[in-house]
Specification:
globular, 9 helices
């Protein structure tokens, strides 16, 4: 087994253990006790978002490793490969958790999303290439912090609070910057570098962007309608 695969397996086990113990660490409020697994699932997702959300962002990474801005295929800072491997382990754990605890018609969108991420990030982990590109993709986790906080506040029945309103505003702002703009930049990079990327990898990346972009635009519309135009 390569170190990358061992790290993926270790990450999967760690997030699984965290998921099992979260109910003791963060007891669900009365309003969330009917859906205890989802309460644990969201807190586990928040824990993952906080990890790449606080360690992957730029401009610090680009300042320390300026070669990344020109080469997202072979150039990446120390620790980036491990961070991507840890994320693969989390997405595998979340995939299994939803598959075991939620009906397929309720979770198929997220399962599909996770499948795309696992394949794309898995290629980066196995080949030790495109790690910089995966690191850019992890910028979306900055928004995921507020997206998961929104779900926690909803489950805790704290919708009509200043905290929820403030989080909704930050959530939409970071959604535009770290999801929609990031995906647009990644799509542009793929198009401009199509001659330098192997056809199979380019096809996987293109299909991934073609799937993720409309999914994120639809989710943005749902958030906007729910929190501001209800």
């Amino acid at each position: 087994f390569s170190p990358g695969l061992l790290l993926v397996a270790g990450s999967f086990a760690a997030f699984r253990l965290l998921n099992r113990g979260l109910e003791r660490l963060v007891p669900p409020p009365p309003s969330a006790r009917r859906n205890r697994w989802k309460w644990r699932n969201i807190w586990t997702s928040l824990a993952h978002s906080a990890l790449p959300g606080t360690h992957s962002p730029f401009p610090r990474r680009f300042c320390l490793h300026p070669g990344m801005s020109e080469d997202l295929v072979g150039t990446h800072p120390p620790g980036a490969h491990s961070l991507v491997a840890v994320s693969v382990g989390y997405f595998l754990e979340d995939f299994v958790d939803m598959l075991c605890n939620q009906k397929l018609h309720q979770s198929w969108e997220l399962l599909f999303h996770h499948s795309v991420v696992i394949v794309c990030f898995g290629i980066a982990v196995l080949l030790h290439q495109y790690v910089g590109f995966a690191l850019v993709a992890l910028l979306v986790e900055i928004n995921s912090i507020f997206l998961h906080l929104r779900q926690i506040l909803l489950m805790a029945n704290l919708v009509h609070t200043t905290c929820y309103r403030l989080n909704s505003i930050i959530n939409l702002g970071t959604y535009v910057v770290f999801r929609i703009a990031t995906l647009a930049w990644m799509t542009r990079w793929l198009f401009l570098n199509r001659e330098n990327v192997p056809p199979a990898t380019y096809a996987v990346g293109t299909v991934g962007m073609a799937i993720m972009t409309p999914m994120n635009i639809i989710l943005f519309y749902r958030l906007l309608r729910s929190d501001f135009f209800k």
